[in-house]
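This entry is passed on directly below:
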Amino acid sequence: MKTIIVLGSTGSLGKKTIELLEEMKNDYKLIGISAYQSAESFDLQAKKLGFGKDKAVLVKRDGTKKLEALIKQKNVDIVINLISGIGGIAPTILALKEGKKVILANKESIVGKGYLLKKYIKNEQIIPVDSEHNAIFEIIKNHPKEKIKKIIIPCSGGSFYKKSKKELEQITPAQAITHPRWAMGKKISVESATLINKGLEIVEAYYLFEMPLKKIQTFYNPECKIHGAVEFEKSGTFAYSAEPEMKDHIRNALLRAIGKVPTCNIRKIKSLKLKKLNNKNLLGIEIVLKVFKKSPKDMQKFLQKEEKVVNKFLENKIKFTQIFNLLP
């Protein structure tokens, strides 16, 4: 049995993870949780799980030192980091340095510090949870001796893919936080709507799968039924198909972390009809890759700025289209 702590326990992913851990009692023992500021729901969660203050850390109330102590516990085998945004970077690095296996949903850790985390990625100390990257991870795991020709990342297009520039200017935060297919948090919903998130996913794939950018493709997939695909040199293209639900990917990662093989719908496809992304008003991918190509080490600064800009939009201080203007 492995011991595990859940960082970001009150978010949608956190709640799903705790449900899954309840189902996997023979494999896992949950020994700690953390959240940032949702005090009421966090305290109720901690009480239900029977955790006192040493095992349940609310960062805004208890401080980062308490979070660090939770991660550093010698009896912690696995850390699942579901924290949203740049606040998740430091916990990832600490957990890895402490020798913990990290199940990772915080893409900012890889995007911002991927150049430092290469050895941990190579040793599979990191298992990705993002639907696209987890799907690709599973396909590659199913073909361990195959040479990869290219990686294919689907893109839903977000909520406003077919809207004109004039229509985009009128978008409100309430509209932007509703994704047509996925149930996600506010920040990532806005990032999805701007295609910033897809740019970050390309960078994440660059590091996780050691692929040059030219071998990472995206395609328009509004149905969100294909979560990822890989084309191999000899055996062709394989796709991971599923409903747009994150629970499957969390389960996959939890099983892989203990050496078990998940059951996934991975199938060979004769051809994947790729619809190119063609909305020139949604500049997220272009902006992210421009910064990354210029200097990978500047990505954390970009993420910090991007988070502030998205928050300004969510606070109704800027228009939706100004997000692009305020980023490099």
About this structure: The radius of gyration is 19 Å. The first strand starts at residue 2 and ends at 7.
